[in-house]
Structures are given as C-alpha cells and as structure tokens.
Amino acid sequence: GIQVEQSPPDLILQEGANSTLRCNFSDSVNNLQWFHQNPWGQLINLFYIPSGTKQNGRLSATTVATERYSLLYISSSQTTDSGVYFCAVETANAGKSTFGDGTTLTVKP
Amino acid sequence: EADIYQTPRYLVIGTGKKITLECSQTMGHDKMYWYQQDPGMELHLIHYSYGVNSTEKGDLSSESTVSRIRTEHFPLTLESARPSHTSQYLCASSEPPPNTEAFFGQGTRLTVV
Which of B59, B98, B107 is nearest residue A41 as measured by Cβ atoms? Predict the structure, then answer.
C-alpha cells in the first residue's frame, strides 16, 4: 500500500515563529487532507488539498502532486496551534485513507 | 456545516461487558469509517462502510464489529470488553467522489478496567 511520511516528528516553537510541516507519499493520490488533532483528541479539518495551494488565515498548504509531497505552513504560531498535525492520503482505487504518523507541534509562550 | 456525532465521549467499563459506541452523521454521506488511536500514536482504520448493508474490515484487525442499517448510523460493538481495548475510537464520514473529504467526530475515549 501507499506509504505516508511526515516530518519532522516533533517540533517545538516559540510563540510568533513560523513553521513548515511536510508530508511525502509514495504513490499518486486523488485526495489529500491535513488535520489538526486538538488536546481533546478531536481531528479538525484544515485543508482538503489534492493539488495546488490554499490559505486559511495563518495557515496555508501546498500540494505538488507530481512530486508526491505536501507542505503545511503555519505563520505567527500561537499556543493554541499546539497538537498533532496529520496528513492523510487516498489513492484512486483504495477507497480509504492512509494517515501519516503525525507531527507533534508544541508552541511555547 | 459538517455534523458527525459520537457518544459517549468517555466510557469507563469493566472487563467482560458488552459495549456499543455510537456514531451518527447528518450529511447523507455513504462512506463511514472507524479508526482506533492509542495516545500519541497514529490512527489505524478498523472498519469502514460504503453504504447501507456494507461493512469492511480495515487495516488493523479488531475484535469489534460494526453494522450499517441506516445511512446516518454506524455503531461499533465490543461483545466482551478487555483492558487491551482501551483506546480512543474515532468515527468519520466522507463526501462522495471526486471530492472525498472526510470529517471526524469528537471521538470516544474507552477505558476498560
């Protein structure tokens, strides 16, 4: 099956700093999503981005499907950004998503 | 607005009890999923469904079972809970193709003592 690798596994930032999270995948995908898992365990949709670039406030994401990677940018980080960020991909015939191992972000005040 | 609900949010139960975790969505999605996640770890797909009367095993073997009698409802059942079942269980549903965006419920944290 498809392999999904996220980097870095852990990231510690000072409040106000910018960061880039990466998601590499081993096959062509027709669906890619970024999620933020909050401290209560809920997965919050950030972006549905099988290709191209999207922005939502301080967050933006870019997926380069031909090169099989996606990037999540967080600017001016806040303590509430802390949590685990997951990338999930779905191939055309899989019918289900495969998640990466996540990046744990800690933003310190 | 995406609406998918899981109940209970937290459950502490004794070994050997039968439990059912509820998941309902109001978006009319055909596809639904159950994931299991231990604290700080990755998500593992344990069950999914393409629609009514469809259930499939996921990537991780699980002693739980699911049913899909109605589009909006996808309950997960453990016939005899064990401490090894302690985990968080996340339910999701997704849009139909070509946009297969998935939405998650708030999760159920299960502790079996």
Answer: B107
